[in-house]
Amino acid sequence: MDLGIRGRKAIVNGGSAGMGRSAVLSLAREGVECFVSARGEERLVAACEEIAAETGVKVTPIATDHSTEEGRAKILAACPDPDILVGTCSPPPMTPDYSAITEAQWREAIDISLLSPVAFMRDVLDGMVQRKWGRIVNIATVAAKYPGEIRVLSGATRAALTNYTVAVSKVVAKHNVIINNLLPGMHHSAFVEKQFNERAAAKGITYEEEVAEFSKLWRIAAERFGDCDDVGDMTAMFCSQQANYITGQSLVIDGGATTSTF
């Protein structure tokens, strides 16, 4: 299917690995020129080069911290008039004890997961509205909709982001500017693989066994973790021309771990 976005320009923040990288790959496969930010330059440059080589599309790495004013300015200088904005970031650590979360951890999570995406939206929305075309997708977390102590540091800030984006989506929809959220559960990202390899090593079991135990404990209906490319493809779909009448939605992608009719 042709998604009708060939030749568009996209900013993808946090796009060097995991779901962010998959979003860049899916967009590039559709012919979208991508400007990709991340803090780690080596991994970022490697990812952009690999995607550009595979797709034949220009993919520009921007090594910076998108949660800072300086970082946002650097990204927007490289792509001042994006048609598409995709926001994601490395998730904060799991929080098995809510009382152990420090003020510094809260402030960092708020800066990265809430204030930075809001600032980016504010910076790009006027241009999208004037051009009568825009797509914004925030890759958040299923914990924004289904709270749990283990993900409270991530879920609380992104619940606020989801609330904000849905509210703003109602204002700009008449200008063909479409804003949606993706709420992924457990996927085989670099972050998850690092954490679950450490958990497995502490128990003397394999990564696959630890994933299976977790899937059973948290009642993931698919009995497995997802692939980041699944999230990337849904990102591209939400950026498509076909998504012009879908706005203010928050799609859960969790393999059936949560239960809800809506």
Write a brief caption for the model.
This protein has eight helices and seven strands. With 262 residues, the chain is an alpha/beta fold.
Give a structural overview:
There is one protein chain. By secondary structure, the protein is an alpha/beta fold. It has helices at 18-29, 41-55, 69-78, 103-131, 152-172, 190-203, 207-217, 228-238; strands at 9-13, 33-38, 59-63, 84-87, 134-139, 177-184, 250-253. The protein has 2 domains: 9-187 and 227-252, NAD(P)-binding Rossmann-like Domain (Rossmann fold); 188-225. The protein has 8 helices and 7 strands; from the N terminus they run βαβαβαβαβαβαααβ. The longest helix is centred in the middle third of the chain and has 29 residues, at 103-131.
- Principal-axis shape equals globular
Please outline the major beta sheet: 7 strands, parallel
Q: Output the CATH topology of the largest domain.
A: Rossmann fold
CATH hierarchy, class of the largest domain? Alpha Beta
CATH architecture of the largest domain: 3-Layer(aba) Sandwich
Side-by-side strand order of the widest sheet = 3-2-1-4-5-6-7
Series of secondary-structure elements, N-terminal to C-terminal: EHEHEHEHEHEHHHE
User: Separation of termini?
Assistant: 27 Å
Family: Belongs to the short-chain dehydrogenases/reductases (SDR) family.
Protein name: SDR family NAD(P)-dependent oxidoreductase
InterPro entries: NAD(P)-bd_dom_sf, SDR, SDR_fam
Organism: Aurantiacibacter gilvus
